[in-house]
Specification:
Length: 209
């Protein structure tokens, strides 16, 4: 096979175009089979040296979720305090996590100390292990979207505190906390763009040659 059909190519483009970082969710539960199917995409992700350093910690308990949300609220208040003027005004109105409502929540960590892959490719640039985790998250994100499910990435967190609260090894590096559920709305433009915070750039602006 030399490629996929034009219909598939067009659908794939729509999927990429319509994927959003979602913070506003319907309360509806997701069929666990759908979540499992999408999670399986992690095992197909590229990773440096085939190290597969991602560690997925589902956050199902009320205590775990409350601790993560408290962590976010404090980190977000600190972040707001770093802005002034119009930026502070816009920032204070942004919704930067869906932790209040998303029916599925999980954290992804990088176990950079894994011996899997025997260090291949990560000797000169150890950060490649974290990049591997990010690439796995990305295809998981698209898989969810293909099933009509949205995801939001939360990084406004104290990672050491989250590790303690969730009981994960302290040498794992936080890749992100993820809120997953059916989106309240569909949009072609990012929420930050709609809120007047920042704008996407087009291809010609990012090509350096
Ligand atoms: C590494 C990473 C961390 C992010 N952290 C947050 C976050 O803490 N809160 C949030 O609301 N969005 C977060 N986002 C989402 C971005 O704001 C979003 O991807 C960007 O505005 C573009 O919007 P789109 O994903 O809908 O295209 C994060 C995205 C990435 C890739």
């Amino acid at each position: 096979m030399t490629g996929f059909s034009p219909d598939f190519q067009s659908d794939l483009w729509s999927l990429i175009r319509m994927r959003r970082d979602v913070r506003r969710f319907k309360p509806d539960a997701i069929d666990p089979e759908i979540v499992d199917r999408c999670l399986r995409s992690f095992s197909l992700a590229p990773s440096v040296g085939l190290s597969e350093p991602w560690r997925i910690v589902m956050v199902n308990s009320a205590e775990g979720r409350a601790a993560a949300r408290e962590n976010f609220l404090e980190a977000n208040a600190d972040a707001l305090a770093g802005y002034s003027g119009d930026d502070a005004k816009i920032y204070s109105g942004l919704k930067l996590s869906g932790m209040d409502l998303s029916p599925v929540q999980m954290s992804v960590w990088c176990d950079a100390g894994t011996t899997k892959g025997k260090g291949l490719g990560a000797g000169t640039m150890p950060e490649m292990k974290a990049y591997s985790c990010v690439s796995a998250v990305m295809q998981f994100w698209l898989m969810l979207k293909a099933h009509g499910v949205g995801m939001g990435w939360v990084s406004i967190l104290d990672p050491d505190r989250l590790a303690r609260d969730l009981g994960v090894p302290d040498d794992w590096k936080l890749i992100g906390y993820f809120c997953i559920g059916y989106p309240e709305e569909e949009h072609e433009t990012p929420e930050l763009e709609r809120a007047g915070w920042e704008q996407r750039q087009a291809l010609p602006d990012m090509l350096v040659r």
